[in-house]
């Protein structure tokens, strides 16, 4: 493509930005990052890079770090993404920018082995997700994405007190938000988040510790499968749900918290196994 086009045309920031988006949408993150970086540092007089280009540059760095198997390279990509993200937040805070930062720290926690550093990164991630959540509350149809991620991390850290009416209120509110958005937009992620909130509810309430926990395990598996069906989820989207469960299991096993007994972790693994049968292997 590039050989058949004018070299000057390829130097335009808007063209580089579009190429970055094109490669990123197909999971070619290294190419996407390269084109977005060219767009960001473009000094041409005609077309200037947008702040959206910077956001996507950071986003694809985080996604590249999630996809890659090299932990050292992944950490480097995430540190670079965080540095750009901090500069972007100085220009202006948005829910999306704050969520990207939360995602970056969440991935840093996954790459760590030490309990102290994992806890530190998770607290950072939670903080950014909560700030993103607060931004969403001002909207007419708030997106519960930052809320469900914040609560997922908080439950891992043991920050959600059992029986707390405020926690129950937030979990109920989150589910209703996701259901409302799914009814309005029919986005698969909203359907999946309904099940995610139910999963957090079960974990937080201690359902996985009960002798009849299989009833809750089967109910959650049904809820996820229903979300996949109603949202017409493709294999990658189903796989993403499995990875969210893997993150939860991995963090609980590494932190060995009081709330993560063998019964709870086994229940989570059973749910993941049931969902992974319909996802990418």
Briefly, what is this?
The chain is 75% helix and 0% strand.
Tell the overall outline: globular
Distance between the termini: 33 Å
Count of extended strands: 0
- Percent helix among the residues? over 70%
Tell me the strand percentage band. under 5%
Mind describing the biggest β-sheet? none
Average pLDDT level: 88
Q: Tell me the structural class.
A: mainly alpha
Low-pLDDT ranges: none
Q: Can you write the helix and strand succession as a string?
A: HHHHHHHHHHHHH
How many helices?
13
Radius of gyration, CA atoms, in whole angstroms: 20 Å
Please explain how this structure is put together.
The protein has a domain at 147-281. The protein contains 13 helices and no strands. The protein has helices spanning 7-10, 13-25, 29-40, 51-67, 71-91, 95-111, 115-136, 145-157, 165-185, 188-205, 213-230, 235-255, 262-276. The relative contact order is 0.07. The mean pLDDT is 88.
Give the helix/strand layout:
Layout: H1 7-10, H2 13-25, H3 29-40, H4 51-67, H5 71-91, H6 95-111, H7 115-136, H8 145-157, H9 165-185, H10 188-205, H11 213-230, H12 235-255, H13 262-276
Key words describing this protein structure:
0% strand, single chain, 281 residues, mainly alpha
């Amino acid at each position: 493509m590039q050989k058949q086009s004018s070299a000057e045309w390829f130097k335009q920031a808007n063209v580089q930005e579009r190429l970055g988006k094109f490669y990123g949408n197909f999971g070619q993150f290294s190419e996407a990052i390269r084109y977005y970086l060219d767009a960001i540092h473009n000094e041409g007089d005609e077309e200037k890079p947008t702040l959206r280009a910077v956001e996507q540059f950071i986003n694809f760095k985080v996604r590249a770090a999630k996809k890659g198997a090299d932990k050292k390279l992944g950490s480097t990509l995430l540190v670079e993404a965080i540095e750009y993200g901090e500069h972007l937040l100085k220009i202006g805070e948005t829910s999306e920018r704050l969520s990207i930062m939360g995602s970056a720290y969440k991935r840093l926690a996954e790459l760590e082995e030490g309990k102290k550093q994992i806890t530190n990164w998770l607290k950072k991630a939670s903080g950014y997700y909560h700030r993103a959540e607060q931004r969403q509350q001002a909207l007419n149809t708030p997106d519960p994405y930052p809320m469900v991620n914040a609560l997922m991390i908080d439950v891992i850290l043991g920050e959600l007190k059992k029986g707390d009416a405020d926690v129950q209120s937030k979990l109920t509110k989150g589910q209703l938000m996701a259901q409302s958005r799914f009814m309005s937009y029919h986005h698969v992620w909203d359907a999946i988040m309904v099940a995610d909130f139910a999963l957090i509810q079960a974990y937080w309430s201690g359902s996985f510790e009960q002798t009849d926990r299989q009833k809750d395990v089967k109910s959650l598996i049904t809820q996820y499968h229903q979300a996949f069906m109603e949202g017409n989820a493709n294999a990658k989207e189903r796989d993403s749900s499995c990875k969210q469960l893997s993150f939860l299991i991995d963090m609980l096993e590494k932190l060995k918290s009081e709330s993560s007994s063998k019964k709870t972790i086994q229940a989570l693994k059973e749910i993941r196994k049931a969902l992974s049968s319909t996802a990418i292997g």
